[in-house]
Amino acid sequence: MNDNALMNKAADNIRILSASMVEKAKSGHPGGPMGGADFINVLYSEFLEYDPENPHWEGRDRFFLDAGHMSPMFYSVLCLSGKFSIDETKAFRQWGSPTPGHPERDIERGIENTSGPLGQGHAYGAGAAVAAKFLKARLGDTIDHTIYAYITDGGIQEEISQGVGRLAGHLGLDNFIMFYDSNNIQLSTTTDAVTSEDVAKKYEAWNWKVITIDGNNVDEIRKALTEAKAEKERPTLIIGNTIMGRGALAADCTSFECQVSTHGQPLSAAGADFAQTVKNLGGDPENPFVIFPEVTALYEKRKKELNDIVAAKKARYNVWAKANPELAAKKHRWFARELPEIDWASIGQKPDNATRAASATVLGVLAQKVENMIVASADLSNSDKTDGFLKYTKAFEKNDFSGAFLQAGVAEFTLSAMCIGMSLHGGVIPACGTFFAFSDYMKPAIRVAALMGTPVIFIWTHDAFRVGEDGPTHQPVEQEAQIRLLEKLQNHHGQNSMLVLRPADVHETTVAWKMALENAQTPTGLILSRQNIKDLPAAGSRYKEALQAEKGAYVVQDENDYDVILLASGSEVSTLAEGAELLKADGIKTRIVSVPSEGLFRSQTKKYQESILPEGKKKFGLTAGLPVTLEGLVGADGKVWGMNSFGFSAPYKILDEKLGYTGKNVYEQVKKLL
């Protein structure tokens, strides 16, 4: 245990660095980091276990920051830990700096997740805790690390916190410890202007252990973390009552603590005196970017302790690995995301089936082949057909993670963010399902997954107006266009930030799943039909021909000297095939192109793109979404038939007739085009 005076000195060092970073950048959030400095210092100098030499060590504790605006505090403690230089903290929020305004995932630097949109970060932590429980059920006590999360008033208020609180408590995630920095101040008001709830009672009702402390008191922080680590039945919420802008002074040296103004602007702009504040905290206002010598010694001491802790853990692991070579090999493969051999061609699909049912068939195979796969559903497993996986396993329960399925209840946002957290933890391959219309609830999480390059698989069924009688609330129209925008957006590695696949028949569905599982770089979205779809024509093996979907678009059927190219994705491709037969009777020759992913197609060579969709050739696109979904591919060479309104409540075959999704209408529209 370190001397408390030294610990307070280190926390003041974090406060000075945090305030100085914001002051120099002329933007940011100093007040919260100044209040949270004591907790983060205790966590990093005495509790958090990680390998200083190998940031990727699988046995490390994980720290998930929910409140990205607390980045000055986070960068400061990581600077004390040797992950950032003083010069890098000086470059806070500047072009090309590794210290952006909100932290972005960088394992080398000790940052487990991108944070900023409040609420998501602690959901990632809960998901990581689920992944650790899953792995421990299979690998035993070699999985013995702790998941920490840091949340603030805004994150507690975000609705996703209800889903995380409910699920983490229900599942008894005793490996999950969350610190709630409760300073009663938010960006524009004090918290009492917007809430009067009893947070402790709320989490107790969700079956959490709740400890309330003075969040600026070293002894109370230590005691709470020790108790939380010893808890073996429930997740723990530590409510730390902290002081916003702790140590801040006005020009006349009176306290400037607990001010709303210090939440989101530099101290000087907020009305405090930066120089007096730095002096008050023991620093030099002329040279505030300094690590005190005794604080350097504190963190050097912790580094030595960590090296000893890690060495002991690795020694125990090596003994276990020698006694359990098969499990050790599995663990290595799982964390390396190595896939088992899967004979995709042998997966038997029922002809002319719905693609959601074809997905269930594939999931049944994956449940038996991919031992580290976790599938989840938002209370729709028997409708989004993720039950194809569930038939071969069972759902998670408190104290029993031997299964591989998460029944999340009606909580799409929570579900998606927790699955992202599972992926961030590593060692598991998560997929989650819901109706495509409800992808709207998931989009904030999908966006951050795309930014981080997190390979979560999203399974979206009931993909169009053919949901039928359920009506327009359940019938996606604009959703595909929205999701496909992420195929046009590059991540920071220069890749399409998401892979979105809408397979045209059962065989393309098998190929789409192959592509999803093999995509370790970005999220993947699978858009699947509720209704049956007629298999596309094939000269030989339909599966082998469907493998061409790996290029994003390919020719399904062709005629020499064709007059027009018909293109679509999903169930509309088979409608084009019906229309092509009618056109053929009139002597009109066609080429049919399936486009499961425009983004992937645009990543191919110009030569390949031109070979499939040559410029100047007449083109007709058919989509059950907004016409813009295909307009980029059709261009000035033709027209797109799509949905320009919300859907209607009626049987889907009636809707096909009324809305023009028939071979007859394809024939009529192409005749007009030509």
Identify the overall geometry: elongated
What oligomeric state best describes the polypeptide chains here? single chain
Strand arrangement within the widest β-sheet reads 7-6-8-9-11-10
Round the mean pLDDT to the nearest integer and report it. Answer: 98
Q: What can be said about the biggest beta sheet? A: 6 strands, parallel
Report the β-strand fraction as a percent range.
Answer: 5-15%
**Which blocks of ≥5 consecutive residues have pLDDT under 50?**
none
Secondary-structure content class: alpha/beta
C-alpha Rg (nearest Å): 28 Å
Distance between the termini: 82 Å
Q: Helix fraction?
A: 40-55%
Count of helix runs: 26
> How many β-strand runs?
16
Helix and strand arrangement:
Blueprint: H1 4-25, H2 31-47, E1 62-65, H3 71-80, H4 86-90, H5 120-139, E2 147-152, H6 153-157, H7 160-170, E3 176-182, H8 199-205, E4 209-214, H9 218-230, E5 236-241, H10 267-270, H11 274-280, H12 293-323, H13 325-335, H14 355-369, E6 373-377, H15 387-390, E7 405-407, H16 412-425, E8 429-435, H17 443-452, E9 457-461, H18 479-488, E10 499-501, H19 506-518, E11 524-527, H20 542-546, E12 554-557, E13 564-568, H21 572-585, E14 590-594, H22 598-601, H23 606-612, E15 619-622, H24 628-634, E16 638-641, H25 652-659, H26 663-673
Parallel strand pairs: 1-2, 2-3, 3-5, 4-5, 6-7, 6-8, 8-9, 9-11, 10-11, 13-14, 13-15, 15-16
Antiparallel strand pairs: 12-14
Helix pairs in contact: 1-2, 1-3, 2-3, 2-9, 5-7, 5-16, 7-16, 12-13, 14-19, 16-17, 21-26
